[in-house]
Amino acid sequence: MTDDVPALELRSLTLRYGEVVALDAIDLVAPQGSFTVLLGPSGCGKSTVLRAIAGLERPASGDVIVEGRRVNDLEPQARDVAMVFQNYALYPHMTVRENIAFPLRMRRVPRADIRRRVEEAARLLAIEPLLDRKPRHLSGGQRQRVAIGRAIVRDARIFLFDEPLSNLDARLRGEMRREIARLHRRLGKAVVYVTHDQVEALTLGEKIVVLRGGRIEQTGTPEDVYLRPATPFVATFLGAPPMNILEGRIESGRFLGSGVELPVEVPDCPRVELGFRPDRSRLGGEDGRGRVELVENLGSDRYVHVDLGGPTIVVRLAPGESPRIGETVPFSVDRDVIHLFGDGRRI
Ligand SMILES: Nc1ncnc2c1ncn2[C@@H]1O[C@H](COP(=O)(O)OP(=O)(O)O)[C@@H](O)[C@H]1O
Ligand SMILES: [Mg+2]
């Protein structure tokens, strides 16, 4: 297959569960060897997209195209797509080797090939010493690796991962994240990876698709979605602490709202939302002032929550700054990294 045919395309994919519109006109192009992350809150349709690609759900309209070929009418087994499920279940009575071999046995792959491919997958995932163990003698991270092994042992064209790390603790998640990135480079296959975790999305994704309520809010590189969010939803979903959003208006080149006043270079507008990240604002200056509500220590950084008499914003503290609760403080915002939204879209 030539390089310019995408590994996967979704064209205006719409899918309903009874009355519920789970996916509404989803478009996606995943080039060969690419890593695409679907990011969004619980219930936004992430798993449904994967299930539609794998053939486990049938779209109401739209197309699923794998390497240039429409596969809507193909059974899951005929699609050349491998999936790691969120709640992976290993067969408890089988060894690791048998678990990984299972999809190949189902496909009646010759024994010698099974052996070779299982060992290859085990080597990629560094679980060779575990091949003869039963799942109950494995740690959570090791079980997760076996589940991934069971997916990659097939020579699929596309790999789908549904929140594969959500059952692991934070430290192990970081480790597995790096391992999945490495695995992707070595497999050289297109991956579509689902998560609700913005850190996972930003660190793994070459392309990030932000979903909300079955619709795409924004598709872009990690830089695009973080630095130039298309909507207030994307702006606040990526980044921690989340971006501050204030309602107001634009009048003669100034944003006015919640006692905040800032020069901006956009035309007058009666209703806008101003966004700025906590780490792009500081105490001091004269963009606005408010009452200190809380100081939050996140280890590497400390943040102060400032009540503007309605909305509350979060501002990063400089080393040594220790505002008192209840004190009124001035703050200012980096002018070159403010975000303005009108009608819910980036201006
Ligand atoms: N089998 C189903 N029957 C009915 N509704 C479903 C089913 N599966 C998912 N949904 C609904 O479809 C929407 C998307 O679900 P899902 O794709 O699982 O979201 P996510 O994976 O992003 O958490 C949700 O509103 C969910 O309740
Ligand atoms: Mg899900």
Q: Can you put this structure into words, describing what you see?
A:
By secondary structure, this protein is of the alpha+beta class. It has two domains: 8-237, P-loop containing nucleotide triphosphate hydrolases (Rossmann fold, 3-Layer(aba) Sandwich), CATH 3.40.50; 244-346, OB fold (Dihydrolipoamide Acetyltransferase, E2P) (Beta Barrel), CATH 2.40.50.140. 24% of the residues lie in helices and 36% in strands. The chain has eight helices and 20 strands. The chain has helices at 46-54, 96-106, 111-124, 140-152, 170-187, 198-204, 222-227, 232-237; strands spanning 8-17, 20-30, 35-39, 61-66, 69-70, 81-84, 158-162, 190-195, 207-212, 215-220, 244-251, 254-257, 260-263, 269-276, 281-297, 302-307, 312-316, 328-333, 339-342, 345-346. The chain has a six-stranded mixed beta sheet with strand order 6-7-8-3-9-10, with helices on both faces. A six-stranded antiparallel beta sheet has the order 13-12-11-14-19-20. Strand 19 (339-342) and strand 20 (345-346) form a beta hairpin. The longest helix has 18 residues, at 170-187. It is elongated and about 75 Å long. The relative contact order is 0.12. The model has no long low-confidence stretch (mean pLDDT 93). Bound molecules: adenosine-5'-diphosphate (ADP) and magnesium ion. The site of magnesium ion has 3 residues, from helix 1. Residues 17, 20, 22, 40, 42-48 line the site of adenosine-5'-diphosphate (ADP).
